[in-house]
Amino acid sequence: MASISSAGIGSGLDVSSIVTQLMAVEKAPLQQMQSQASTIQNKLSAYGKIQSFVSALRDAASTLTKPTTWGDTTATSGDTSVFTATTDTNATAGNYSMTVQQLASAQMVASPASVFPVGSGTLRIDVGSLNAGGTGIDLKPGTSSVNVTIDAGDTPAQVRDKINAAKAGVTASIITDAAGSRLVLRGSDTGKDNAFTITGIDDPLDTTTPAGQRPSNLTFSATDLAAATDGLPATVSNSQLTFTQAAVNAKATINGLAVETSSNVMSGVLDGVTVKLAKVSATPVELTVATNNESIKKAITNFTDAYNSLNKYLADQTKYDAANKVSATLQGDSGTNALRSAMRGIVGGSSGGTGVFHRLSELGISPQSDGSLSVDSTKLTSALGKLSDVKDLFAKSDAALDADNGFGARMKKWGDALLSFDGSLTTRSDSLRRQISANSKKQDAFNDRMTAVEARMRAQYSALDTKMATLNGLSSYLTQQITNMNKSST
Fold first, then answer.
1. Would residue 412 count as lying in a domain?
2. Sign of CA dihedral 153, 157, 158, 159
3. Which of 50, 209, 389, 466 has a CA 20 to 30 Å removed from the CA of 196?
4. pTM, whole model, 2 decimals?
5. Which of 258, 261, 240 is nearest to 250 (CA)?
């Protein structure tokens, strides 16, 4: 029968414990490699965050170099109940006097309740402007007549849904009063070029529907449109529909010049300014377009905030905690220290601008002992009164001589260089990644070697265990024989 054996049985040696303890000594260098890997990974993470902070600072600096930042404007209405206004990048500062004589509106007509349920037939809808003779509609460019089929017995709701589904430039709805449900038709757009006519065509085969409920009763012709007056609502003699609102353009006077638009949102009348009309005004209302100093001030403070965020992170990553004797991740890192020195050199220097300002401190932006920038809001607001000089301080760009560049242009160039494919931040991060990769390969090779060492140790101590077990057995046998011989001689 084969014997069952286990390391240490018979010999008394704790082979497993011996091998484990010896391997712990052999594997001691692995802990150092793992510690190095952790340190390198922490540095790589720190550099990744530095890249993010530098990118934010570069973008904030870039904003201060753009003409759109310094040309930003705002519009103010002297009476917002009459109109409000907004601007875009094409607006220029100026003052305007504006009187609103008429708001744009969409044509609206309403049917009597008695026409429903309607008989079968067709409603032809034409959208456009009344021709000079008042005898027809000149169709709106890009449109054509739209026919809506009506079935016998259709209710106001069914006719409404069919008209809306046809997307004919007319929107249908229902108003219900004591007389019943009325069909109300409204032009989809405002302005005189969006008037509409309706031609009701009866089904010749429908002989049972009463005359007053046939589609022809929903006709509103060009003649009806021409006969309509501003005394609304008015029932046009040739139609059963009530004319409740005319399609008219908005009319206003700006600095004495008459303007007219199909919409109550006037765009393109003043360059870069959109005016939204709300009501007619009896007297002129002032419209002021001015440089938006608040948005420019916000762009400058965004720049200082981004700078301070980067400065604080670099300070935190390079400090030494003397109380706990702990170094931050990048304490003593030459590349990080060079970054701190460079950024402080930029904001602490002078601009080669030709305006009255040459240093940030003259705007109320002062470097502090910890490297951060402190902003005196009152002083900055006052400095923005000389906007062209402030712009020159930040946005001036001289490709030939970097010292003549504004602070925004200089900081943008610095950030671009750091973040480029061969910039110091990129190359440093790449170097750390290569170190991590090399460390990982070194650990793998070391672990493979330790596996072989452990296998060899276990084989050696297992052999020793077997040999000692044999010797122990022989010793026991000899002891037994000597004992027996002593008993015989006695």
1. no
2. positive
3. 209
4. 0.72
5. 261
